[in-house]
Automatic annotation (TrEMBL):
The keyword tRNA processing does not apply. It comes from Pseudoteredinibacter isoporae. Coiled coil: none annotated. It comes from the Bacteria. GO terms for biological process: epigenetic regulation of gene expression. This is Acetoin utilization deacetylase AcuC-like enzyme. Belongs to the histone deacetylase family. Residues 28-339 form the Histone deacetylase domain. Keywords: Hydrolase, Metal-binding, Zinc. GO terms for molecular function: histone deacetylase activity; hydrolase activity; metal ion binding.
Length: 344
């Protein structure tokens, strides 16, 4: 299978991430995708293509225009009003609705309007990486619709925590959602998204929650115990026209190993098969790995091979979009283990 990549990912890096009341070195760092790329070359998974350029309209098809404008303008305004030596990050949040219709003037207020947490800041050139990551996803979708059986979009930054007008959890533009909407715009009737990142794909869920043309399934750590905490429960099934088109399978932290995971995977695949999508988009995070530094599932490297084999049995045109995974030593092996089932 072919991979799409953009070297522009390295334009995005932050000085710190905040958790447990502390500023720490970032788990989400540029190395991550370089390790994956190296493993793709070593194992000869297939050729690596550079992302094509696409119009911003494809991003605005799932995100508010004002939010995309904010992402583009943020750094320049941060430099004028705040400290150019530090990451642009929110310190105040809009949790009341009085100002919802207002585009705030100050960068502090804009950051707060468009952030859900402290783990999505922006650096000097972050926007270029964010835009390129969406282009990586769009290029993969374009190749898929052009007749490829399966594609891998090696996106960074990740996307699945980003909703229509909120950045969160290392995510800015929802790459999988942008790709799904592109497939619909190009003539697909139904798209399924399967999110197998350790964390619930709350951004993806929220974008498609009231729509029937995109079925969203997610297998993830129980939000009673894990980020993103405020979404991902089994009783969230979609609303209005989207009722029945959202499936959450939360699993317990600490105890989830292959037997439990395999059952959940099969359950999500059965639901996807009966939805009969034209294409499948897999939000592929490998932070379900037993040695992941911020996660608590117990999948081994061999288990990722089993995931790939099981998914391939769906026999759907499939676009893999890269999301999380922070055990950099094994991130390449685990990712390629999933994808290998699709190599010719
Ligand atoms: C794309 C993706 O995987 N985003 C994940 C965002 C997770 N953010 C919350 C992380 C909380 C980490 N707690 C760390 C405890 C380390 N001992
Ligand atoms: Zn994750």
């Amino acid at each position: 299978m072919k991979t799409v990549f953009s070297p522009r990912h390295s334009d995005h890096w932050l000085r710190y991430e905040y958790s447990g009341g502390q500023a720490k070195p970032c788990f989400e760092k540029p190395d991550r995708v370089e390790f994956v790329k190296r493993e793709i070359l070593n194992r000869r998974l297939g050729s690596i293509l550079l992302a094509e350029e696409f119009s911003l309209d494809h991003l605005c098809a799932v995100h508010d225009e004002s939010y995309i404008r904010f992402l583009q303008e943020c750094w320049a305004q941060w430099v004028k009003e705040m400290n150019p030596e530090l990451d642009a990050i929110a310190t105040v949040f809009n949790r009341q609705s009085f100002a919802d219709h207002i585009e705030p003037r100050s960068i502090e207020a804009r950051l707060g309007k468009y952030s859900a947490d402290l783990t999505a800041g922006l650096g000097p050139k972050s926007w270029y990486a964010i835009e390129a990551s969406a282009h990586v996803a769009l290029s993969g979708a374009k190749q898929l619709l052009g007749g490829e059986k399966a594609m891998f979009s090696l996106c960074r930054p990740a996307g699945h925590h980003a909703s229509a007008a909120l950045m969160a959890g290392y995510c800015y533009v929802n790459n999988a959602a942008v790709a799904a909407q592109y497939c619909l715009d190009q003539g697909c009737d139904r798209v399924a998204i399967l999110d197998i990142d350790y964390h619930h794909g709350n951004g993806t869920q929220s974008i498609f929650y009231e729509r029937s043309e995109v079925f969203v399934a997610s297998i993830h750590a129980d939000p009673d115990q894990e980020y993103p905490f405020y979404a991902g429960r089994a009783d969230e099934c979609g609303a209005l026209k989207g009722l029945g088109a959202n499936l959450n399978i939360p699993l317990s932290l600490g105890t989830t190993a292959w037997p439990e995971y395999q059952t959940a995977l099969q359950q999500s695949m059965d639901a996807i098969a009966s939805y009969k999508p034209d294409v499948l988009i897999v939000s592929l995070g490998v932070d379900t790995y037993e040695e992941d530094p911020i996660s608590h599932f117990r999948l081994s490297s061999d288990d990722f091979t089993k995931i790939g084999k099981q998914l391939a049995a769906l026999d759907l045109p499939s676009l893999f979009v890269f999301e999380g995974g922070y055990a950099v030593g094994a991130i390449g092996v685990n990712t390629v283990n999933v994808l290998e089932a699709y190599s010719e």
